[in-house]
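can u pls check wat happens w/ IPE
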Amino acid sequence: MKKAVSKELTHLAIIMDGNGRWAQKRGLPRAMGHRAGVEALRRIVELCPANRIEYLTVYAFSTENWKRPQTEVQALMALLNEFIDKELNLLNQKGVCIRVLGDTKPLAPVLRKKIDHALETTAQNKELVLSLALNYGGRRELLQAAKALAYRALQGEDPEAWQEEDLAAELFTKGIPEPDLLIRTGGDLRISNFLLWQVAYTELWCTDIFWPDFGEKELLEALAAFKGRQRRFGGV
Ligand code: IPE
Ligand code: IPE
Ligand code: MG
């Protein structure tokens, strides 16, 4: 879903990186960095409506993050649990619609139930779509979309008739416009398997700031940089 050359920032995506290093720098356990990262997310969610951002998509846990020590994975899952417990009512009151991108099947049944409840509770909200990429990998998502199309072919559809939109409709992001801006915090300059299909023409903005330190000043800086970009989508 490409827009004409426009400076509107409808969809912001964020690779929230640097929690661990933020904590290490302070002599704290990595889990404390993740906790501070949840606070940063809360701040950024609040700033979206005023900045006319309608979709916020954040990378919370990748398909590769399972490689981390079990204690860290558990700490991240516990924080997600806590985030839903503490924030669901407020997010709902503020009109935030929560979505999850990724496969939640490997998560603990209690957590999955809580996530499903959050999705149902907020499904009709219109102020902001907050997508949490959870056990998400761009390659996994594309593989799953390819499988879905293969099944459709087995059921008699003609693959020759399919357009790019048909594949996009099999992705977790179905119905969500492509990101206009992708922010990565934490100093690295890579995509790390995030939204591989969707960021084809997304503007990139990277900062050395660790995610827990990312606030209004940094967001406004990124939005201002975006306004100065010339998006050509391959044209002249
Ligand atoms: C990002 O912070 C959060 C997740 C990946 C869950 P990191 O935990 O990757 O922090 P660094 O990159 O090690 O500092
Ligand atoms: C990307 O950060 C994933 C999330 C922010 C959830 P990583 O810390 O996992 O990425 P790499 O390993 O530095 O590429
Ligand atoms: Mg990292």
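The first helix runs from residue 19 to 25.
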